[in-house]
TrEMBL record:
Pfam families assigned to the protein according to its UniProt record, in alphabetical order: ABC_trans_aux (PF03886)
Organism lineage: Bacteria, Pseudomonadati, Pseudomonadota, Alphaproteobacteria, Rhodobacterales
Highest taxon listed in the record's lineage: Bacteria
The protein, known as: ABC-type transport auxiliary lipoprotein component domain-containing protein
Span of domain ABC-type transport auxiliary lipoprotein component: 38-181
Coiled coil (UniProt feature): none
Species, as recorded: Aliiruegeria lutimaris
Amino acid sequence: MRFQILLVALLALVSACGPGPVRYAAAPVPSGGRISIGVSQLEVREVSLPAYARSEEIWRESEGGALTSDSSVLWADDPARGITMELSQHLSTLTGARVAAEPWPFEELPQARLVVRVQQMVAGADGQFRMSGQYFVAALSAGRDRSGDFSVSAPFVLDGGAPAIAAARATAVRDLARLIADRGF
């Protein structure tokens, strides 16, 4: 009897040490050519995502339109934080402005604040990674407030799995940064 209990405990321990989830980071993509904006200091608020996209799981659209995920395939970072950091980095590189995600880390206050609210973020059954929603630029020191809708997409290979989706997400976030820099200021 003792041997059986020991065997069950050993099997439970071994199964708990099995492979864990695999995490995927959005691969860095070049920001592209410079875009001039009317501010030199910009704060980026944490990007607001729909409930399903806030989870660590990578969501895909099925042929029937349902959103599904696999708990063993995860984003490397919290999606809202990761997208906020990617967006900040691209905006900094694109514009040459001092750009930082909230909370603002500098003594001198920012001249503008960017808020992005994502309504849809999904790897589509059609091989397009889509992001859509609204952005808001609040002029804190000079200029005027602006807002607009956005819809960006990037292709991915359907059988490329999570690495292909992560690469497409990185491209979509870069394209969103370019759109906001071009239209938001």
